[in-house]
Structure formats: structure tokens, C-alpha cells
Design brief:
CATH class: Mainly Alpha
Number of domains: 1
Structural class: mainly alpha
CATH architecture: Up-down Bundle
Distance between the termini: 20 Å
Radius of gyration: 16 Å
Largest sheet: none
Number of helices: 4
CATH topology: Four Helix Bundle (Hemerythrin (Met), subunit A)
Low-confidence stretches: 126-133
Number of strands: 0
Shape: elongated
Mean pLDDT: 92
Strand content: under 5%
Bound molecules: fe (ii) ion
Order of helices and strands: HHHH
Helix content: over 70%
Length: 133
């Protein structure tokens, strides 16, 4: 059975927390001048999967602001790809990680908050069923 909009919204919220932890951990490694490769690959992969999931939810529920949201995902994906082209020990890499963290936060606070509000309104504001044991 397909997940209801509220369940999708809860899952997206949880994914945002994971994405935030990944970018924070990456920034911490940069600050400590440690190897960032594994975490960078994980962040890029996770973000792609997360964006794909949001895009499927938008398509499934005919989200009216999908075009603008997809454009923002494309922009963020380009920033993620650009990170992989930069010398890891460079100031440009460190600055780009900081900039991307800020861009992701802004995306979550604005575009994603609107999407989650839409999904929750679609569900009539009801909470997801509690998991029984
Ligand atoms: Fe998004």
C-alpha cells in the first residue's frame, strides 16, 4: 500500500535530520583537516536519494510548486557535484561546505517546509497511526 501524505512528511523530516548530521559531520572533518572522502560520498548519495523521494511525493500528490522546488534541487545537486571537484584541503572546499550547509538549511526551512505543509494539509492534518507492538 502506498504511504499516506502524513507518513511521507514524517519520513522526509527524518531524512532532513540525517542530511543535516552528514553535512555537520563533514564540516567537522574539514575543520579538523581529516579525510572527508567517505562522508562526502555518503552526503552526495544520501542527498540524491532524498531529493528523488521528495520529487516522487511531489509528482504523486500534484504539488503545485513542484517546478520551483525541482529547480532548487538541481541547483543544490550541482553544488554537491561541485564539491567533489574541489581539492579537499583547499580553502575553496571548506568555504563550499559551509555554503552548502547554509543552502541546505535554507532549502529545508523554506521550500521543504512548504512541501511538508502541503502534504500534511493533503492528509487533513491528521497524525500518522502509532506503531503498535
Ligand atoms: Fe527539497
Amino acid at each position: 500500500m502506498a504511504p499516506v501524505p502524513t507518513e511521507i512528511a514524517v519520513a522526509i523530516d527524518e531524512e532532513h535530520l540525517i542530511q543535516e548530521r552528514l553535512i555537520r559531520a563533514l564540516a567537522a572533518l574539514v575543520g579538523e583537516q581529516r579525510d572527508t572522502e567517505e562522508l562526502l560520498v555518503a552526503l552526495v548519495r544520501y542527498s540524491r536519494r532524498h531529493f528523488d523521494g521528495e520529487e516522487r511525493a511531489m509528482a504523486r500528490h500534484a504539488y503545485p510548486a513542484a517546478e520551483q522546488h525541482l529547480a532548487e534541487h538541481r541547483r543544490l545537486s550541482l553544488e554537491l557535484d561541485r564539491l567533489r571537484t574541489l581539492e579537499r584541503s583547499s580553502g575553496a572546499f571548506a568555504a563550499s561546505v559551509t555554503q552548502l550547509a547554509s543552502a541546505l538549511r535554507s532549502h529545508v526551512d523554506h521550500d521543504d517546509a512548504q512541501l511538508l505543509g502541503f502534504l500534511r494539509r493533503m492528509a487533513g492534518g491528521s497524525s500518522p497511526k502509532p506503531v503498535s507492538d
